[in-house]
Amino acid sequence: MQKTLIIYKSETGFTQKYAKWLSNELSCDICDLKVCSKDKVNNYDILIYGGGIYAGQINGFKDFKNMVPSDKKLILFMTGATPIDESDTIQKAFDTNLTKDEQNKIPHFYAASGLNYEKMSFKHKMMMKGLILMLKNKQPEFCEIISKSFDASDFSYLDGLVECVRGM
Predict the structure, then answer these.
(1) Is 160 helix (H, G, I), strand (E, B) or coil?
(2) DSSP track, 8-35
(3) Residue range 150-163: mean pLDDT, rounded
(4) CA–CA separation, 10 vs 135, rounded Å?
(5) Does residue 130 carry a pLDDT above 80?
(6) Which of 8, 28, 81, 166 is 20 to 30 A away from residue 146, measured at CA?
């Protein structure tokens, strides 16, 4: 059986929640990117990376890619407050973070999560405030949703990822 490691970076807890759910479902190891090392990843065949989307960037993904040997099987999951049915917005985030070649080689998945203003950094709170002001007249319903904390996490968003790992 191939050894699998889930590496994640989580600012407000949503990505960590998904990483723990995956670890339990797949009976594999888990590691916060802050304490993960190149030596550790070398002991695994499959590496799953999870990060939240912040200002269009997958949190920590560049650092993760820099520590991964080219012979490893990679899977990516991204979490965010974007509703799961906003496929164009989600695809744009993947296009920003993965080249077309990487999108073809690296299975990638999105799991809707939410917002947690209580755990959010000041910087991210200000970014959210700016976004709300920018969209206030164009998308008032959306602004109402993102103006407060909410949790849309659901294990079923991981079904495709779990199936992908089991098929490797």
Answers:
(1) helix
(2) EE-SSSHHHHHHHHHHHHHT-EEEEGGG
(3) 95
(4) 26
(5) yes
(6) 8
